[in-house]
Amino acid sequence: MLKTKNYEFNKPEPDDYVIVGDLNYNMDEIDKLLKLINDNLDILNTNGESLLDLLKKKADLDNNRKVLKSQLPDLDIYKDVLMYEARGNFPASGNGKKLYIDRSGSKIYRWTGSTYVELSPQLKIGEVKDTAFDGARGKALEDAMKNRYTKKEVDDLLERLREEISGDIIEQIIAFS
């Protein structure tokens, strides 16, 4: 009996008898390989684009495993940075190839063609409104508590509670003895 070149499946010669076990084994092996290929095809999904065309778009690495400089994006469009003391000093119409810096607010903007868009949203913490957890809510609660009760009023209230609780405890001890 002969063997196939790549996977060494049994292949009968013209004068051999066919052994059903060999055929079943071969079919099971082929079935496993086809399933493996099918399962891994999703990894190679190219949305209809040729795999060779996609490979042409990839960046190559040099000997130091860095992307070749010739394949890096051209960032020259952002080399011009214009500094202004305040956002109000920006020109009415900007240039989409320049960055605009508002020194007073420490913010960076880009011109979209119709308006300036902030590129550097500021981190807001503490007593600031309109944040993920509005710090102003905590501050407002703190202020309300300070305005509602003075320290003396809180101390007096606590003392009355202590006396009332102590009196209740003593009454219950007397009642159950």
Helix proportion range: 25-40%
What is the CA-based Rg, rounded? Answer: 39 Å
Order of helices and strands: EEHHEEEEHH
The helix-and-strand class reads alpha+beta
Choose one word for the global shape.
flat
Q: Into how many domains do the coordinates divide?
A: 3
Q: How much strand?
A: 5-15%
Low-confidence spans:
none
Summed over residues and divided by their number, the pLDDT gives a mean of 77
* DSSP helical segment count: 4
Count of distinct strands? 6
Taking the sheet with the most strands, its summary is: 4 strands, mixed
Rounded to the nearest angstrom, the distance between the terminal CA atoms is 104 Å
**Strand ordering within the main sheet:** 3-4-5-6
